[in-house]
Amino acid sequence: MENKKQSYFAWWVFIASCLISLVGFGLIVNTIGLFFEPISKSFNASRANVALMTTFQNAAAAITLLFAGKVMAKFNLRWLLTGCFAIIGLSMLSLTQAHSLVHFYIAWTIIGICQPIAITLSIPVLLGNWFNEKLGTVMGIALGVSAFGGTVFNPIIGGVITKAGWRNGFVCEALLILLILVPTAFFLQAKPNEKHLAYGEKQVKKEEKIENSGFTLKQALHKPVFYALAFAMLALQFVSGTVQHISGHIVNIGLPLTTGATVVSGVMLGAAAGKISIGFFLDRFNARVVLFFYSLFGLLGWGGQILLHNSAQLVASAFVLGLGQGVCLVALPYLIRQEFGAKDYSNILSVINMLGAFAMSASVYLVGLFFDQTGSYNLGWTINAIAYIASFVALVLTLKKQNAKS
Fold first, then answer.
1. What is the DSSP letter of 180?
2. Cα–Cα distances in angstroms (integers) from residue 271 to residues 146, 159, 306, in the given order
3. Which part of the chain is the Major facilitator superfamily (MFS) profile domain (predicted)?
4. Model pTM?
């Protein structure tokens, strides 16, 4: 009973993580594709050159991930997150005054530097610190909220862009970041202490023992599963980056931008269901079986985007491929924690995410380039389907049997 009273702060961290996911992933990451076409027309630039701003963003994020885990372990996480969200919001606001693509490249590079600490790593690190039980479930819910954010924000931002222009779209995004995420970060507590214990821990000594258990990054580098997880992150983050082109794909096959926004919302809704459910199942069932079904969802969903042309069918296909995104954003951080423990979790997660960030930065530009060369997104969607097959095989061959729950 005493432990329950002392563990309530873990649930505030969970709520804060949900808000970071909702606005951080749901708005900053998942709506940028809506700006590609109007910016392209405004500056008379190719789709690939416009998409290059997210390539700079993700490349900067990948470089930052080299040391982000160490920075988060060394400095006060509350102030780090507060500062990062403030910089992201102000950078977004500055785009309302952009008069060349160079401004976009600079602003999104700055956002990319802040993104690993503020968004990519903060949620799994915070939840890993505060939940020693039900980690898969709370991580799945928190990261799943990002898809609800995408579902809500895509039509809103799409509507603002359509009615008031892309500059006002950035005003809307900046205000949401500054008014929601900056205060949320300011009131966070990064780690449990004697007064506020982690969920599932009855004694501080036991908790400290768990914090110090596991492998260092140097030790992890000698295990085959590290490279399987790194490959899976690389392949599936490539897939995640291409989602930004889905609205462009829908317009390219002759349907309106509003339909494109609805299809993207279908992806986000599917991702919400996928991320929430995969965390629940990973806490309870054999990891290999769970990965099989969610990888199959990814394969079928991207195949549908190639073959289908009906609006309702495309939304359904988008929902299915969204389910598959749970592998990348929930299963991989969860499995990294399960395989290597808490000892050097933020650093190991940071390094593996670095590879994914490089893949994402390349994918946005490459798929835009494929489109410019072929007039179609089908080559990119085919690569995505293959990525799910290859990553599943790599993980199944290397995961330890302890992850096979009965």
1. I
2. 8, 22, 19
3. 14-402
4. 0.74
Q: What is the CATH number of the domain that holds 46?
A: 1.20.1250.20
Q: How many domains does the chain have?
A: 1
331-to-60, 66, 290, 324, 379 alpha-carbon distances in Å: 24, 21, 9, 10, 26
What's the pLDDT tens digit per position in 105-158?
Answer: 999 999 999 998 998 888 888 888 888 778 888 888 888 787 678 778 888 888
The angle at the Cα of 127, spanning 126 to 128, to the nearest 5 degrees, equals: 90
What band does 395 get if pLDDT is binned at 50, 70 and 90?
A: very high
Q: How far is residue 312 from each of residues 174, 266, 270, 305, measured CA to CA in Å?
A: 32, 10, 14, 12
Cα–Cα distance measured from residue 137 to residue 140, given in angstroms and rounded to the nearest whole number: 5
The domain in which residue 177 lies consists of 2-403
HSE, side-chain direction, 13 A CA sphere, residue 282: 30
DSSP string, 189-223: --S--SSSPPBT-S-HHHHHHHHT-S--HHHHTTS
| 308, 252 contact by CB (below 8 A) | no
